[in-house]
Amino acid sequence: MDSASKYLDLGEPSRSSHLWKYTPWKRVHPSGNIGEIPKLSKPKLSLSLLDGDDAPDGITLIEGGKNEVDLPDTDEITHSFLEAISENSKWTLKVDKGFHSENPVVLEIEAGDEASSCHISLDIGESAEIEIVTKVTGGKDWFGLLRTGEVGSGAILNDVLIGLMERGTMLRTDSISVGRDAHVRAGTVSSGSEKTKSDVRFRMGQIGGSVRVLGSILSTESMHLDHHIEIHHDSPQTFSRLSWHSACGGDSRTVGTGMLRVSDGSKGADAAQIFHNLLLSEKAEADSIPELEVMEHDVVGCGHGTANGPIDEQQMFYLEARGLNKQEAKRTLIAAFLNSTLSEMGSERLHEWLVSELTKKLETLES
């Protein structure tokens, strides 16, 4: 069955699932008519180093998809829908076996003024070591991004997606398989789109894999940003950490749901997650739902937690007493809060670049 037929057979997802509890599928569908599979335009993709130079040999962006192998459980609704609308916009980002780059690589996706989508397959070779930033710009209407693929055995991948859409809606689905003794650090920096629905999933099906998922989310005005993260431990001696920070202003709303699944036989698994939310106004709302499903009794540790709170008035007073005005003090505290996860997303060079992008967004905040 092709992806279009599969999607149409599934029908509307149930609101009883926490994946769809806060953001109904109709709200993020391009037309709102869930029985329709629209024809969308193709975004523009380009690959370069963070300093603007051409990407080196060993990493290539190839037009055309790659066969999916051993992918983690996915949400069939969005996965099949994004496959169907991205049939003519498939790409493979291939990193050669043993490739190493000290300079982060930027995959820029210009979403354009019209609704668009693309499917990117990640093919990270064994023992490769690389930092990849996927930067989404433009997007005044609607943009869909499906990312699938594999991280080869022994590879070290820092993978950061930063959403810099001007407005509109972004639908994102990630489904990544992590190889033996591979280490993945996956960061999400989100701000700009009026609505975001993101479903990010990893599966560690071989011994020794590790995943660290980090989020720095800034919502303002009337944004609605909904992120769901699942990490599947399906092999012994696997490790995961999920740390998600959201700063919510205006009358915006952020949603963060996390699921850590440890299957029977995953001896020595170590999994934990934490959500922190900073409320910048009385009308802002943040919902966090951390969950664990542990089927193996011989684990190192499994835990979860969440915390919400406003800006600390004593910290505001301290900064204002040292010469900052109220707006400057507020921005400083927001930046420090978001930087606690941002600083873990990669190298010093990458961190400096991410801080500069986040600072531009903070400068637009109203007092």
Beta fraction of the residues?
A: 35-45%
The Rg value, from CA coordinates, equals 20 Å
Average pLDDT over all residues: 91
What fraction, in percent, of the residue positions are helical? 10-25%
Report on the biggest sheet: 9 strands, mixed
Shape: globular
Q: Count every beta strand, where a strand is a DSSP E run of 2 or more residues.
A: 18
Oligomer: single chain
Number of domains: 1
Strand order of the largest sheet: 1-4-6-8-10-12-14-16-18
Give structural notes.
The chain is an alpha/beta fold. The protein has one domain. Helices cover 18% and strands 44% of the residues. It has 7 helices and 18 strands. The strands form 2 sheets. It has a 9-stranded mixed β-sheet, covered by helices on one side. The protein has a 9-stranded mixed β-sheet with strand order 2-3-5-7-9-11-13-15-17, with helices on one face. Helix 1 (3-10) packs antiparallel against helix 4 (76-85), helix 5 (313-321) crosses helix 6 (326-342) and helix 6 runs antiparallel to helix 7 (348-362). The longest helix has 17 residues, at 326-342. The chain is globular, with a radius of gyration of 20 Å. 47% of the residues are buried.
